[in-house]
Amino acid sequence: MKKIFSVSLLIAVLAFSNLVFASNKGENPFGEDLNTDEMLLGNLKMFTDGNIVKQRYGSPNWGRIGGNNQCGYGDSVILHFSDNKLVKIVVSQNNGWTTPKGIAVGMSIEVVTKMYGEPCLRESAENFSNIAYIYRSATRDGSPSLVFVFDKKNRLIQRIIITSELDEVAARNITEFLKN
Fold it and tell me: Is pTM, for the whole model, over 0.70?
């Protein structure tokens, strides 16, 4: 249950970050925006057609590729699709899926900031053991976010996420949560 809640909180944080970026109208108070070419994970980019994913990686271990489905490869890669386009990648183990700069699960927060600079947004909640570093594409409109989720204590990456999904309900929920 704690894991489901943590994932739900992270999704809400991501959605909230999109509202923050929209309100800044291109101004980034924290860090530099990334080039769209840096928004890859496992050599896949957002909005890749489900058929191309299947050609590259074969059939998933669970779920279905394409449509409005989720699927997984092993225990550590989850892909989300909307209208047969890839909209989210979640990697939770060091399994060979890296960013173009070679960042993988298990690396330190210091390596991430050395390679990518300061994040556009840092999100954390007092009662949770994770902190998210969120980087945005320079194009912003409809562009993906690259998220590194770290354990607060050991400062190592637990998950890497690239997402284009927005959820306004989750954004409102995180806003209320952060007020308390």
Answer: yes
Residue pair 133/159 in contact (Cβ under 8 Å)? The answer is no
Q: What is the pLDDT confidence band of residue 135, given thresholds at 50, 70 and 90?
A: confident
Distances (CA, A) of 44 to 2, 36, 90, 115: 29, 12, 12, 20
- Here the tokens at position 120 are 């556009």
C-beta pairs of 105-111 under 8 Å, 24+ apart in sequence? 105/76, 105/157, 105/158, 105/159, 105/160, 106/156, 106/157, 107/156, 107/157, 108/155, 108/156, 108/157, 109/133, 109/148, 109/150, 109/155, 109/156, 109/157, 110/155
